[in-house]
Automatic annotation (TrEMBL):
InterPro entries: IspD, IspD/TarI, IspD/TarI_cytidylyltransf_bact, Nucleotide-diphossugar_trans
Protein's name according to its UniProt entry: 2-C-methyl-D-erythritol 4-phosphate cytidylyltransferase
NCBIfam families tied to this protein: ispD
UniProt function note: Catalyzes the formation of 4-diphosphocytidyl-2-C-methyl-D-erythritol from CTP and 2-C-methyl-D-erythritol 4-phosphate (MEP).
Sequence similarity: Belongs to the IspD/TarI cytidylyltransferase family. IspD subfamily.
The species this protein was found in: Parashewanella spongiae
Upper classification of the organism: Bacteria, Pseudomonadati, Pseudomonadota, Gammaproteobacteria, Alteromonadales
Length: 243
């Protein structure tokens, strides 16, 4: 039975290896305060009351996911990812459709963004009222932007007005994202995020200003920063409970 647009599916593509991190294991399994990055990320969605199911896509050779305490959670579904992120997301969307969630909302979130807060998830879900075609979390560009040439020499300064840094989650209806992503990949379109597939199909998603600490762990130094943010989040949660 198809679920309605009141339902929400979280999709976390975690089939990558994170080569820029330079670690001997996929970066999503590196630990922050004794807990893997992926566990931090997955728990944010498993613990959200409006998320019905969390689909985590891992590589076929993954040896780590089943060791995570969240792997046996009743809301979690594991699927096999593809060769690229877009293919991995597409496999996850197919799984969501098979589970009856084709008419539900998908929140696609990077596995290596462990600092996502409930507040930002709530903001994105609330935006469905204003952006029925979907929306993404993003941050307005704050710094001066430069365009370089092939020799890394500055070519010109780019006006930062109306420029945004795209983040995740990115939220679209499962069936619509699946259709547009599949067709874009078949046409060999370069898909850098889920929104780019929707934009290719002529849809203009909304932009929701999110927290700057929703960082993506890409380089080794990001681990320390993510640990700091997660510590602050935990402290704020405790203070909120005691207030």
């Amino acid at each position: 039975m198809s679920q309605s647009l009141d339902h929400v599916v979280a999709i976390i593509p975690a089939a990558g290896v994170g080569q820029r991190m330079g670690a001997n294991i996929p970066k999503q399994y590196l630990e922050i305060d004794g807990i893997s990055i992926l566990s931090h990320t997955v728990k944010a969605f498993l613990n959200h009351p409006k998320v019905d199911v969390v689909i985590v896509a891992v590589s076929k050779d993954d040896q780590y996911f089943d060791q995570l305490p969240e792997s046996n959670h009743s809301k979690l579904v594991k699927v096999q990812g593809g060769s690229e992120r877009a293919n991995t997301v597409l496999e996850s969307l197919k799984s969501a459709s098979q589970l009856g969630y084709e008419d539900s909302w998908a929140l696609v979130h990077d596995a290596a963004r462990p600092c996502i807060t409930r507040r930002d998830i709530d903001l994105l879900l609330k935006s469905r009222e204003n952006y029925p075609n979907g929306a993404i979390l993003a941050m307005p560009v704050r710094d001066t932007m430069k365009r370089a040439d092939s020799s890394s020499l500055i070519k010109n300064t780019v006006c930062r007005e109306l420029l945004w840094h795209a983040m995740t989650p990115q939220m679209f209806v499962v069936s619509e994202l699946q259709k547009n992503l599949n067709e874009a990949l078949n046409d060999n379109v370069l898909i850098t995020d889920e929104s780019s597939a929707m934009e290719w199909a002529g849809i203009n998603p909304g932009l929701i200003s999110g927290r700057a600490d929703n960082i993506k762990v890409t380089h080794a130094e990001d681990l320390q920063l993510a640990a700091l943010y997660l510590s602050e989040h935990k402290k704020n949660e405790i203070q909120g409970e005691n207030s």
